[in-house]
């Protein structure tokens, strides 16, 4: 159906009288509809359209807030055109519907925020579980296992080699006689070979040493992965606590808004306030309900994030313990910056891994240097064989043809297309890169520690200020509320003070959990277990 075009008919200077020309009927919804007479019904041919004008309703009705006459672009149809008279929504019914929706959200919020400390996972339980079951941790453990296999190979490269070879041959050849008859001959050869590298410039020794260092570095990389997941779990856990406290605050706000709206309703019925004031209270109540819904979604999202870090399945039920965090925890002494950084340089696994990577690169230089030195290898072999067409048995042939050999081979590289020089140059560059990586790790660690220290100090300061602000804003809001109920303050002044109070509460919550997180991470970097 084409869209109705709405405009004021030309020449209309004042509202037209109520409809007295066309019959009306009630539809199944109780709405009044007018039915146009058959003379105004039409049939259109092809793609043409018909434009007509009809008065609407028995009372002046605003259609699109423009006028009470409608112009229709009529499609092919013979049905009577009718319009329902517009009904003005009852604000009381709309308020009841909004209240029911908010009540359901409030019950859900109170249920989510009312967890006891005896249920769910503690922070320490989450950390311990994630350190063993997270996929990134398991991936680093696989890399460690691969390095251990490489170490076993490096050790085995120093042992002798031993191998057995055999060949079985059949020769079919014609004889040079008058008949050119043919004959087949079978032969077999058997050999046992052994070899040992006596000297190759220390390459085997330095390769073994390098692989041992790599193994130790991989062990620290596993700890790096575990530390990363521990930090991520701590952040996600405190995000849940922050979201949960926000839900509780917003739920209390909705309860307060509901009570204020009921009070405003009574004042409206008594004629003490205007309908516009009541509409503002209703709008504020709806806004508070919306904020409660948003905070509930944030809490659910924070739970999901932590659950994913723990690698829990889709069917696993999960919740956390909500410990009480008082001001003494928030305002705990912040560790000294120099102490935290000095300790972190010594104990953090990424720093140990960086130092080992430098040692590994230095060992790699010695391995590359050995590529240009002579190689001395010893070899030994014992062999025998047998042939068909003789008068000796198989075992006699093996015994008669038994032979032994031993020797030493010296290989001196003279020109190998610059491969040895290239290996040495690249090894030196890898050492330099390892040194730069370690310097970057030091800088990154210092930046992290300094940021955490600054965040902790700033958050504690903001928490103190926000606490005072909550106290004063709460007192001011209580006074304004009393004056509003006494008719001394209007709705705008009341809602302004209420929003100031809510903003102060939110600032306090943010500063609270930012301070706790920063202090706990500073403790972590000075090798203190994270606990709440």
Can you walk me through this structure?
It is a single chain. The protein has 532 residues and is of the alpha+beta class. It has two domains: 1-88, no CATH class; 104-159 and 200-374 and 412-525, Outer membrane efflux proteins (OEP) (Up-down Bundle), CATH 1.20.1600.10. It has helices spanning 91-113, 123-133, 135-156, 203-269, 275-309, 327-330, 337-347, 349-370, 394-400, 419-485, 491-525, and strands at residues 24-26, 32-34, 50-55, 69-74, 161-174, 182-199, 375-387, 403-411. The strands form three sheets. Strands 5-6-7-8 form a four-stranded antiparallel beta sheet, covered by helices on one side. It has a two-stranded antiparallel sheet with strand order 1-2. Strands 3-4 form a two-stranded antiparallel ribbon. A hairpin with a 5-residue loop joins strand 1 (24-26) and strand 2. The chain is elongated, with a radius of gyration of 44 Å. The two termini are 64 Å apart.
What keywords describe this structure?
2 domains; 532 residues; two-stranded antiparallel ribbon; alpha+beta; elongated; four-stranded antiparallel beta sheet; disordered N terminus
Rg, please?
44 Å
Number of strands: 8
Name the shape in a single word. Answer: elongated
Helix content: 55-70%
The name of the CATH superfamily of the largest domain reads Outer membrane efflux proteins (OEP)
CATH class of the largest domain: Mainly Alpha
CATH topology heading of the largest domain? Outer membrane efflux proteins (OEP)
